[in-house]
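User: Predict the complex with pyridoxal-5'-phosphate.
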Amino acid sequence: MNTYSFMSEELARLEAKGNLRVLPQTVHEGRYITMDGRRMLNLSSNDYLGLAADIALRSEFLACITPETFLPSASSSRLLTGNFPVFEQLEQELARLYGTEAALTFGSGYHANSGILPAVADSHTLILADKLVHASLIDGIRLSGADCIRFKHNDMNQLERLLQQRSTTYRRTLIVTESLFSMDGDEAPLQELVELKHRYPGILLYVDEAHAFGVRGKQGLGCAEEAGCLPDIDFLVGTFGKAAASAGAFVVCNHTVRNYLVNRMRPFIFTTALPPVVAAWTLFVLCRLPDMTLRRNHLAALFATLRQALADMRQSCPSTSHIIPIIEGDSRDATRRARLLQRQGFYVLPVRPPTVPEGTSRIRISLTADMTMEEMAQLLDALSTPA
Ligand SMILES: *Cc1c(COP(=O)(O)O)cnc(C)c1O
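Assistant: Here is the predicted structure with pyridoxal-5'-phosphate placed in the model:
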């Protein structure tokens, strides 16, 4: 027995179940990824619009950067000396696009979710959260100390019962969900959530649009834009690390919420602001996002093709988006299927517990707008090969 044996024992248990994770050694070349000498089309990134792999876009950005304007570090928290003008510009542009009074940006989506919830919820708050919300939301809920009930995924009847039976004894109730779920690629019924919110008093609606920002809606603002319910969401969170090909996150809100978070949100206060050059790149991308309709339409066409093919193969698919799980069940089967597709030139990964529930291990395909229809046809060939 040594001091670390509890760790090695746990690692051995994970390995025995096929759930041991290791960091992949990968080399990136635009849309491709090379691993163990094999070059594969990357179908596992969150670069949904293909912007991270777009050299022309980067060149255009770099052309407006000089050694004087390239600011690699904020060297401080926003509240001390780190509040560079570019952060305020970025927030003003977000507020303008979303038609809100204000916006606030953060170091990451993880910071946003694990920080906003503890700032706005306490032991007098009830949080009703979808069963499948992201780990960063779960951590935020835990840190808040609020009472929390997880409702069955997208089950509006159960949510309404909870609102009727439980929410009256609390000062306020927060409904927490994602708009587009990362593991099944399905969507929350935003309009129904908004109706529920308006039917009961004292309800706040928190929606994480991490996977929909940039991709959905006429201007790429997300599912709430598409559903026409932007003004009904109290906390709309988006991230820049996915379709926007940058890093960081934001909430769009009113002045009161912004001022409150600046005073009360620990992962906003006690952290160095993002490098200003990152915020400048985010702003550069954000300004172009509304005009990226062609990319969004192509991504939708890729999804429609894949979904139809899966239906033809009688493969059930919960997804209504560019994130497509193919559920295998057992972790080892998912791993085997992923390896097979990798050998055929497609970099897909198995998703296993604890990321997804036991017995629902899967491979997960993330489509990106820079995939061609020819590549889609090759992928369909590879998928129809029995594992
Ligand atoms: C990726 C993701 C996050 C975390 O965002 P980061 O900027 O990567 O920290 C939060 N919520 C959801 C739903 C996500 O998918």
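The first strand starts at residue 27 and ends at 29.
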